Every structure is written in C-alpha cells, then in structure tokens.
Amino acid sequence: MDADSVLSDAVIEQVERIGQADIMVGIPSYRNAATIPHVVKAATAGLVQYFPDQKPVLVNSDGGSPDRTRELVLSTESPDYVEQIILVEPTHRLQRVSLTYRGIPGKGSAFRAIFDIARRLGVKACVVVDSDLRSIVPEWIELLAGPIVKGGFDFVAPLYCRHKFDGTITNMVAYPLTRALYGKRVRQPIGGDFGLSSDLIAAYLDSPLWDEYVARYGIDIWMTTLALNEGFAVCQANLGAKIHDAKDPGADLGPMFREVVGTLFRLAHVYQGNWMQVRGSRALPVYGLERIAVPPPIEVNVERLIEQFRMGTVNYLPLWQAILPADTIHDLGELAKLDEGRFYFPAELWIKCIYDFLYAYGTVQGFSKEQILNSLTPIYFGRVASFVVERIDSIDEVAEQDLERQAREFERLKPYLVSRFEALHRSSGGSNSPLRALGSDNADSSEERASASSTS
Predict the structure, then answer these.
(1) Same domain, 313 and 340
(2) CB-hemisphere CA count at 13 Å for 144?
(3) Which residues make Cβ contacts (< 8 Å) with residue 156, sequence separation at least 6?
(4) 8 Å CB contact between 231 and 446
(5) Which residues, 6+ apart, have CB-to-CB distance to 173 below 8 Å?
(6) Are 257 and 393 within one domain?
(7) 321 plus 274 within the same structural domain
(8) What are the backbone dihedrals phi and psi of residue 111, each rounded to the nearest 5 degrees, phi first?
C-alpha cells in the first residue's frame, strides 16, 4: 500500500481495472443516505447527456458513513432516458466507484481521494458536487465541466441564488476577503461545487500546502486560492438556486468558520507577495445564462449569536488585547451593551477586525493559531447577528446589495492591512521576512489561456 495515498490497495486495483476515463464527477459524503441518490441520478444524467463522446466515471469518496450512503451510490438506478442512451451506445455506460478514504476525517481528505483517482484515470475534467444537494440538475454537470472541456478553463466556481442568510462564512469573510486580496470577484469561493482541469488537479495533489484544516472544511477556499495564485484560468458558472442542508450560524458553523478562515489566513501569508500590490478587483468570465430562482428561507437564532458575541468580549479580552487596537476593543465592548433590537455592528469595524486578525495569524507570539481563530469566532457571530437584524425584512436582492457594499469596503480599507505588513517588513529588514510567498506573481492575465468566449 502507498503510505502517502488516501486510497486502499483494493480501490487502486478497482481504478486500474477501469483503466482510463475522460470526465469524472466526484461526490464526497458522510451520512447522506437521504440526499445522495438524487445527486447520483442528476450527475449520471449530466455526464451521459451532455458529454456523449466522453468516457464517464462517478466516484463517491465517503468518510465511513454508518448509514446506507455508499450502498445507495452503487444501487441507485439511472433515469430511464439515460438507460436508453446506454442501450444505443454501450460505451457510454457509467462506471461507479464508492470508497472509504484513508486519513484525517473530513471533506478535504475525501477530495484528495477523488483527485488521486482522477489523475490515475487521466481524466480531462473533474466536477465535484456536494452530497446534500436538493437543487442539482443534470445541466449542472455541463455548466461546471463545459468551460474546461470546451473553453480551456482550469477552475470553474459556482454562482448561486442563495437565501440572504445562507452562506454567512462566504458572505462575511471568504468572498470579500478573497476579492480584496487577489483582485478577482469569485462570489462563491467555498461553494462546494466546482469544475477542475487535469492540470489543476495535478497541482493540488503535488502542493506542499496541505494541512489538517485543508483536510477538513478548509479545502474549498484552499482550492480557490491556489487556482487564483498559481496562474490558472478561472471562471464562474450560473447554477441557479442552491438548496441544501443549510445550517444556523450560531449553532453549527463554529468549527467550519475556524477551518475556512484559518486556511484563508495561512494562505494570505503564503501569497503575501502576490496581493500586496493588488488594488481593486475585476469580474471573471461567467458561463451559462443567469437563472432566477427563489431559495427557501433559513431561520437564524439572533439571540444566541448576540449572547455568544457578548461572552467573547469577556472570555477573549486578554487575547484581543494582543491583537486589536484599544479603540477597536472599546467599540466591541460598547456593542455588547446593545439589546437585540438595536444591535448594530458596522462593516468598517468588522473589516478592521478581520485585517488585524489576519496579520496576527502569522505574527503574534504567545498564542496558538487555534486560540486566535477561537477568539475571532464570537466577533463573526456578532457581525452575522447585526446583518440579520438589519435585513430581516429585506428581500434577498437588497441584502445582496449590502454584501456588495461590504466587499467594496474590504477593498477600500485594504491599505490598512498593507500598512501593517509594510511596517513588519521595515522592522525585519525586508529581505528575510518570514512572510515570503511560495506562489507565483499575481497573474492578472491567467484567463488569456482560456477561451475568450463565455456566455453571460
């Protein structure tokens, strides 16, 4: 057995029997028996219907589900019209693989197994989709793989219609910070559903930047950040509504927040040489027609979010004093005194907190990175609570306009972050800074390798 592989010998033998494939769909899973049959049906139909000249394979990478997830992947029947296509063209029969990966339990480890199989099979394009999707349709496979197979892109990120309170980690941190740092407007950098080229998959597998957070929920932002910084051609695809097992931020998202933001912060230090000179941002090519959809509502417990924020102002005060300016700590303390109806956390205060924590993640001594992220989590809860209070009666479009204004504020305030790193460089003599980037220079022209034609 290959000690570095997340695949067992039995899985490697199964892949070797398949031999070769042109296009692949990968589905990470854990306890998804209720939803994965629909995902498998849609993916199967998409592969056969939209890529009739490609040899397809579907791979489920499971974390040891105690339910029937893996069994259902292999036993779920294809739609009738897909079976009719296969009867006419037997070479289009879909191969299915379901495995339990090895390594750290988490989505990133599941993806690593999918990438390993994709490289062994020599696929040209790989689509990865979440296993809890209720809104996936066969066309998603074409929308995510088409720009790679037909347009020469390497990384296809999703564009969704989401409820205004869905995706709070995306909306409050991942989207605006990625946009401000690297100058590219990837609206859903941790969306979960992506298209990947063979070259990009090879870069992921060979990267030295895997760690425990990446093995878990840090994988999506890791994939997006590497694609943006390593010269790959990036675009987005209009997928319509994302309907999935959405989570209440205060109840479920603490661990995910730490893993996503920890990965984002670490890579910002790795690629510091890339983003220091970037100003503003630009849109990316979009594939597919815009889809109007109404996602289902999401309930958020604002009272719990505010209470967790208030507890943070007490429990994490010593750590905040090592990271944040005195006036910021004072402002956070004043916010904690507000009742739910008047609770308001300004965007500018939130952005400066993010920038101070990002800087501290690679520079502050005496505290672990986990402690730093734990102490940021209640501040995130406070910002989410404020957004919900402000927009509880607004339509999704108005809330989205607020989020776009926040993203522009991230860009406007970026010199605050840059000045902190420049001061560090001056104090360390510049050339021997521990913040040396491991990636390539910012590649504003990376999309030039891809087709200039994309459907808007």
Answers:
(1) yes
(2) 30
(3) 143, 144, 145, 147, 148, 194, 195, 196, 234, 235, 236, 237, 287
(4) yes
(5) 257, 260, 261, 264, 354, 380
(6) no
(7) no
(8) -65, -40
Count Cβ atoms below 10 Å from residue 452 Cβ, excluding itself: 9
Number of domains into which the chain is organized:
2
Residue 126 and residue 237 in one domain? yes
Residue type, 139: E
Query: Are both 283 and 310 inside the same structural domain?
Result: no
pLDDT in tens, the chain (456 residues): 455 678 999 999 999 999 999 999 999 999 999 999 999 999 999 999 999 999 999 999 999 999 999 999 999 988 766 665 555 455 557 899 999 999 999 999 999 999 999 999 999 999 999 999 999 999 999 999 999 999 999 999 999 999 999 999 999 999 999 999 999 999 999 999 999 999 999 999 999 999 999 999 999 999 999 999 999 999 999 999 998 886 667 666 788 999 999 999 999 999 999 999 999 999 999 999 887 778 888 889 999 999 999 999 999 999 999 999 999 999 999 999 999 989 999 999 999 999 999 999 989 889 999 999 999 999 999 999 999 999 999 999 999 999 999 999 999 999 999 999 999 888 876 543 333 333 333 334 344 434 433 333
Tell me phi and psi for residue 393, to 5 degrees.
-105, 10
Q: Do the Cβ atoms of 305 and 383 come closer than 8 Å?
A: no
What three-state secondary structure class fits 82?
helix
Name the token pair of 359.
């800087």
For the chain, give the number of residues.
456
Strands 56-62 and 23-29: parallel
Distances (CA, A) of 172 to 134, 292, 423, 444: 24, 23, 27, 25
Handedness of CA 214, 218, 219, 223 (dihedral sign): negative
Q: Write the DSSP symbol of residue 184.
A: B
Domain boundary among 287, 319, 338: 287
Is the pTM value of this prediction over 0.85?
A: yes
Residue 451 lies in a domain: no
Domain that holds residue 330: 302-428
For residues 264 and 331, state if they share a domain.
Answer: no
Do 277 and 322 lie in one domain? The reply is: no
Is the residue at 165 inside a domain?
A: yes
3-state helix, strand, coil split of the chain in percent (to 5) is: 55, 10, 35
Residues 47 and 177 placed together within one structural domain of the fold: yes
Contact assessment for residue 223 and residue 260, using Cβ atoms and an 8 Å cutoff: no
